[in-house]
Amino acid sequence: MGSQASERLWWRDAVIYQIYPRSFADGDGDGTGDLAGVRSRLDYLADLGVDAIWFTPWYLSPMADGGYDVADYRVIDPAFGTLAEAEELIAAALAVGIRTIVDIVPNHVSDQHQWFQAALAARPGSPERARFWFHPGRGPGGAEMPTRWASPFNGETWTRTKNPDGTPGEWYLHLFSSAQPDLNWDHPDVRREHEDVLRFWFDRGVAGVRIDSAALLVKDPALPEEPANPGPGEHPASDRDELHDIYRSWRTVADSYPSDVTSGERILVGEVWLPDVDRFVRYLRPDELHTAFNFDFLARPWDAAELRESIDATLASHAPVGAPATWVLSNHDVTRPVTRYGRADSGFSFEAKRMGTPTDLELGRRRARAAALLSAALPGSLYIYQGDELGLPEFEELDNTLRQDPMFLRSGGVDPGREGCRVPLPWSGDAPPFGFSPAGAAPTWLPQPPEWAELTVEKQLADPGSMLALYRALLRIRRAEPGLGDGPMIWFPAGDDVLAFRRGPRFACVVNLSDRPVPLPGHERVLLTSGPLAGADLPSDTAAWLHAAPQRSTQHDQ
Ligand code: NOJ
């Protein structure tokens, strides 16, 4: 691929680092992370070796859902900084070779958004209400909500309004919390506004957009109940066929920007949680989204057959649409890998999250290191959630009174919520705030566990055996190895419960998920291992990157 073409197609094998701005680094000392903090740590990201940053929402927001309740897309929340700072940050990141991806939340807005405030103030049937899903209730006096649709946040999906005279009024739909009213995507204002927002950020040099809850925007206007076992496209509020036209229009907007050497192609990345891979990849057809998060892989337990099945299904389903796969071990919504992989049930599901699940962190750490090598060697692009490169565990001991996540609050405390993976990063020093905030700052918005003194960036940079050292090494090798990133892979046998595959002329990745050591396949050189080898053997829960022996001897080894 020529250098211009590879600039244009940068996203096919990019390493994208996810920043949760509240918890990355605090520049102004208020205990909350901000853009000044990110700016001051750009060198860290460049040295880590990432190609792009995805920022979770940084817009004006009451933070009822950590910024996924946007009050104004054209204003940066004052807790994070200003629009001028965002523009400077985008440029400063590009200057060190890092592109920026912003988060767009098209399914809903904040209840403080001026459209919703205007809708509440207006009468039933008004144009202001038509941008949302206002509806009379069912039953006597309209006292029953219009549907019983389930919420990913637990709890109800409709809230009743009050009329100006205080009597109960219409209901409005919110698939998430009541502070996040759903927009009506049949309304032309809603479509026009979002295309303007895309242009607003593309004009400021962002290289891409991550689309929140991308499969939920369109609703069946007849508001039927959810069928018990909906077939493809039959759910009233998920994966409706009409969505594809919306993303075709968005693609036209993205493609209207020149793919010059600095920004390359402007991309659309979907947050699409769908169990059916064939429905999933329909969003990735050539005139729709560029990529989407591969949650199937993230959700699988640490088990060779499960992971292999997910990898094969991912690659087979992406091939016909020509889209690259993405590999994602975690994000700001899920249990950290070090914790997850240390549990008897090492898969992930929102429904199964519970407080107090027994966890072997040492085992989890070993597996998370091996998973890092596995995911970085697979074909496509790679996402790293801030703090995973430090091996941070989920902070489960957080005091319940500090939990603000609607997933926790709306479950009546049954679901622990997502704060445990959103704790401010430890940078340096031996005590909180571990360099997250400057000296003399206010306490961090969530407390940091004192034992994270062992996990600071400073400590890990000085330790060649640390998780950070592993991530830096693997990203350096990933960039240099011709077979890695986009392109084919070929499995080869290396023992029961061992995942082994070749990339390019001589690269091989071997991951031992069995409970005993296995001989390393024939090789000329070991490039990197996730843990110490046992002589010529690869121990359990360990991965190795190799330069393979020439083809003939590899076949012999098989
Ligand atoms: C998905 C986001 O990742 C999550 O954090 C948010 O709560 C929901 N969408 C609702 O916007």
UniProtKB/TrEMBL annotation:
Residues 221-240 are annotated as: Disordered. It comes from the Bacteria. Keywords: Hydrolase. The keyword Protein biosynthesis does not apply. InterPro entries: GH, GH13_cat_dom, O16G_dom_2. Gene3D superfamilies: Glycosidases, Oligo-1,6-glucosidase, Domain 2. GO terms for molecular function: hydrolase activity. Residues 18-418 form the Glycosyl hydrolase family 13 catalytic domain. PANTHER family: ALPHA-AMYLASE FAMILY MEMBER (PTHR10357), NEUTRAL AND BASIC AMINO ACID TRANSPORT PROTEIN RBAT (PTHR10357:SF179). Belongs to the glycosyl hydrolase 13 family. This is Glycoside hydrolase family 13 protein.
